[in-house]
Specification:
By secondary structure, the protein is of the alpha/beta class. The strands form three sheets. A seven-stranded parallel sheet has the order 3-4-5-8-9-10-11, with helices on one face. The protein has a two-stranded antiparallel ribbon with strand order 1-2. Helix 1 packs across helix 2.
């Protein structure tokens, strides 16, 4: 990257991605992000439209659906060169219930399921969705490091972590990304944005438009909010989610403000 407004980011010196990506959480049953997306073929068309419009970073998670977001992303982008990120370590057995499990056996099982659902031989970025309060972060990251060593994942990421937890994880394995809530109206993660930038780690803000994770609708004006994030730090990769091609095009047009 040559300046703070560069529109790509290099993960661990290995993989270059465009900094305006797409988050697949909304391609699930609504409300509550539970169950499969109602118009499956339209969802696949939306993902392909994003890819054809220059978006090459797609973020999903096991808990979206659960499993169904990975499945629709896998079907839509099979055979493409898109960079696909997913997450594990939490599950969603009901619309109002989340379970956390960062054990080695569970993470290995979830990685294998994600490989099948995403239709990939390797997961580009596998993120620990949340630290299990009963398992040290070092142990969970060690499991991901094993999966990286055997080729099932390429990069390791963390989500919903603080600086101390990130530092502990870094004693075990390289960390490519951190995904925490951050937007122009919620800036509690300012220091961590700067810290990850210093470390060469991507920061992926979820809720970039200030939306409630369990409800549709953005609080912030999309173009301004996304442009603010992209200008905030060169390590930020934005992943706005939408179910509308018109809204997707509007999000992409934020690049005109950079």
């Amino acid at each position: 990257m040559t300046n703070s407004n560069a529109l790509s980011f290099e993960l661990e010196g290995q993989t270059t991605v465009n900094r305006l990506g797409y988050g697949a959480m909304r391609l699930t049953g609504q409300p509550g992000n539970f169950g499969p997306y109602a118009d499956w073929e339209a969802g696949k068309a939306l993902l392909r439209h994003a890819l054809n419009s220059g978006v090459n970073f797609f973020d999903s998670a096991r808990s979206y659906g659960p499993l169904t977001a990975d499945q629709i992303v896998g079907e839509a982008l099979e055979g493409s060169k898109a960079f696909i990120a997913t997450k594990g370590g939490i599950d969603k057995p009901a619309a109002n219930r989340i379970t956390v499990d960062g054990s080695r056996d569970t993470l290995f099982r979830e990685i294998d399921q994600a490989l099948a659902n995403l239709r990939r031989d390797q997961i580009d970025l596998f993120q620990l969705h949340r630290i299990d309060p009963n398992i040290p972060v070092e142990r969970s990251v060690a499991a991901l490091a094993e999966a990286r060593a055997d080729g099932r994942i390429k990069h390791i990421g963390l989500s919903n972590v603080n600086r101390e937890e990130l530092d502990r994880a870094l004693t075990v394995a390289p960390i490519a990304s951190v995904q925490n809530r951050f937007n122009m109206a919620e800036t509690e993660q300012d220091d961590l944005v700067d810290y990850t930038a210093e470390k060469g780690i991507a920061f992926i803000p979820y809720g970039p438009l200030g939306a409630n994770p369990m409800q549709q609708g953005a609080k912030l004006e999309p173009r301004a909010a996304l442009a603010w994030l992209l200008k905030r730090s060169p390590n930020i990769i934005v992943i706005p989610g939408t179910t509308s091609i018109n809204h997707l095009n509007q999000n992409i047009s934020a690049l005109e403000l950079i």
